[in-house]
Amino acid sequence: MNDLKALLTQDQISEIELSKEMCNGMSVDGEPIICFEILSNILHNNLSIRELSKDEIHTVLVQLKGYKDFWKDAIWFQSSNINQIYVVFRELVKNTLREDNLT
Predict the structure, then answer these.
(1) Which residue ranges in the chain fall short of pLDDT 70?
(2) Model pTM greater than 0.90?
(3) Is residue 85 exposed (0-12), middle (13-18) or buried (19+ Cβ within 10 Å)?
(4) How many other β-carbons are positioned within 10 Å of the β-carbon of residue 77?
C-alpha cells in the first residue's frame, strides 16, 4: 500500500502533479526544484520514502516549505492543499524513521 497516496485527497494529489509540471526544469539559487517530482514518484510507487537519502528528504521538506511560504500571501492561490501535503509528508517521514529505528 502507498501510505502517502492513502493520506492525501485527490485534490492534493492533483496539486502535486500540476506543481511537478509547473516546476519542471525550474531552479532556485541554482538548485533544481525536485520536491514534486519525488512526491509524484512516491505516489506512483516508483520510489519509497525509505529509498530517499537524508539529503533528499531534507530537500523535499525545505522546498515544500519554501513553496507554501511563497504562495501563502497570494489571495488568488488556494494554498491549503500545499500546506496539507507538507504536513502529511513530514509526518510520514517521521513515522517511517521511527519505525526503522524500532526494527
Answers:
(1) 1-2, 102-103
(2) no
(3) buried
(4) 12
User: Which of 28, 29, 46 minimizes the C-alpha distance to 37?
Assistant: 46
Nearest to 1 by CA among 56, 48, 37: 48
The pLDDT score that the predictor gives to residue 15 is 94
Residues linked to residue 32 through DSSP beta bridges, in sequence order: 27
Which grid cell sits at 43?
505516489
The answer to whether the beta carbons of residues 7 and 92 sit under 8 Å apart is yes
Cell numbers that stand for 31 in this block: 538548485
- Give start and end residues of each alpha helix (H) in the chain: 3-7, 10-23, 35-43, 54-71, 80-102
Q: What is the dihedral sign for C-alpha 97, 98, 99, 103?
A: positive
The angle subtended at Cα 20 by Cα 16 and Cα 21, nearest 5°, is 125
Question: Residue 32 carries which side chain, given as an amino acid letter?
Answer: P
CB of 89 within 8 A of CB of 60? yes
